[in-house]
Amino acid sequence: MAAEQPQTTVGRVGYWRLLRRNAAYRRLWLGVVVSMAGDWFRTIALYRLVLALTGTSGLALGAVLSVEMLAIFVCSPLAGVVADRYSRKAVMVAADGVRAVLVLGFLGLTADRLWLAYGLAAALMGAAAFFQPAYLATIPLLTSREELLVANALGSASWAVMLAVGSALGGAVVAVLGTQAAFVIDAVSYLISALCIATVPIPAGGQAARIPGGWQALGQGLRYVAAQPRVRRLLTVKACGAGLGGGMLLLFVLFAEEVFHAGALGLGVLYMTRGLGAAVGPVLARRLAGERPAAMEQAIGWAFGLTGSLYVAFAHTPTLLAAALVLCLAYMAASVLWVFSTTLLQVWVPDAYRGRVFAADFALFTFTMAVSALLTGWAADTLALSPRTLATVLGILVLLPAGFWLWPRR
After folding, report:
1. 3-class DSSP state for residue 203?
2. Which pLDDT tens digit goes with each residue over 383-406?
3. Which of 163, 170, 164 is nearest to 184 (CA)?
4. What is the pLDDT of residue 58?
5. Rounded-to-integer distance, Cα 74 and Cα 207, Å
6. How high is the pLDDT of residue 196?
C-alpha cells in the first residue's frame, strides 16, 4: 500500500533531497538520530558497569541483554494496539520522556543493588517497545512510495553511523569520565528527541476508527497476519537475522575483554565498525538490487548467506583490526535484512494494521535475540565454550535461512 499523504517527487529520490524537501520526515529523522547516539553511550556504559560489578561474568551480561529483549517481547502486543489506536506522535514523545527519567536510575548503582540494573534495563526497553512500532508505522504517512525505501535506508544508515559514532565516543567517555557521564548524555538525548518529534505534523491515517478495543484489536491483527503469507515470511527475517545473531552482541564484549584484551576502547572499536558496515550496506544494496519487491526478496536470501559466513570468519580472526574489518562486511549484509524487510512490510501492510504488524516484528526478533544472548552467556560460563567457538555456532545458525529465501518457488 502506498503512503497515504505522499510528498511530490520527480525522478530518482536521493538521501539529501529527501531531507531537504520533506520537512516533516526531516524532523522525525533528526529526533530519532539524536536518541540513537545517546543509546550507544548508555549501552557501552551499562555493559562495562555490569562487568565491573560482577567480575566479568558472561552470564550476567547475557542476562542484561535477555531482560531487555524479553521486555520488548512482553510489551509489544499492547504497544502495537496503542500505535494503531492513538496519536503516534504522542506515543513517541511519551516514550522518550519516560526513557529520559529511567536512564538516570543507573547513576550510583552498586553491586548490592545489581537487580536494579536489570529492572531499569527492562523498563527502558519496554518504553522502546512503544516507540518503535509507532515510528515505523509513521514513516509511510510522511513519505511517498518513491521516498519510502530511501527513508528506510537512510534511517538504517543513520542508526549505523550513530552506532559507530556513539560507540566510539561512548567508549572514550566511559574510559575517561566514567559510566555516570554516559548515562546523563543518554537522558539528554531523549529529551532532545522528544522536542524534535513534538513539532512533526503527523497525519492520523484514519486507522483508529477501524480498530476495536482491547484483546479484539490484538486478535484482529493476528488474523490479518495469518491470512497474509508474504507478511508471515517477512516477519521471520529480523528474527532469523538480528535475533539469532543476538549472542554476537555479548561476544563483542568477550572478544574485546578476553580475546583481544582491549577493554572499553576495543569494545568501542568493534561496535564502531559494526555501525560503519550497517551504514554502507543499505545504500549499496539499493544500488545493486534496485527497488522492485522481487529483487528485494532475492537480496534477503543473499544477505543471510553473507552475514552467516562472515560471522564464522569473525570467529577465527587473529587480531582486533582483522575482526573489525570482517564485522564491517558482515553488518553491511545484515543491514540489508532489516531495511528490505521493513520496506516490504510498509508497502504491503495497510496503515490500519501497521502498528500491530511492526510490534509483532519487533517482538519476534527481540525474543529470539534474548534467547540467543542468554544461551550464549550460559554456554560461555557453564560449558566453558570459547568466544571463538560460540561465534562459529551463531554464524552457522544465521547462514541456514539463506536456503529458504534463495530456493526457487512459485
Report:
1. coil
2. 888 899 999 999 999 998 888 888
3. 170
4. 61
5. 24
6. 94
Q: What gap in Å lies between CA 410 and CA 394, rounded to an integer?
A: 30
Place of cell 522528544: 194
- Torsional sign, CA 360, 349, 88, 159: positive
Q: What tens digit of pLDDT does each residue of 311-343 get?
A: 999 999 999 999 999 999 998 898 888 889 998
Q: Which residues are CB-neighbours of 23 under 8 A, at least 6 positions away?
A: none
Neighbours of 113 (CB within 10 A): 11
Q: Read off the DSSP letter of residue 22.
A: -
* Residue burial 37-72, b: 16+ Cβ < 10 Å; e: rest: bbbbbbbbbbbbbbbebbeeebbbbbbbbbbbbbbb
Domains in the chain, CATH or no CATH each:
21-199+212-406 (1.20.1250.20)
Is 166 within 8 Å of 39 (Cβ atoms)? yes
pTM: 0.74
- How far apart CA 278 and CA 3 sit, in angstroms, is 26
Residue 130 in this model has a pLDDT that exceeds 90? yes
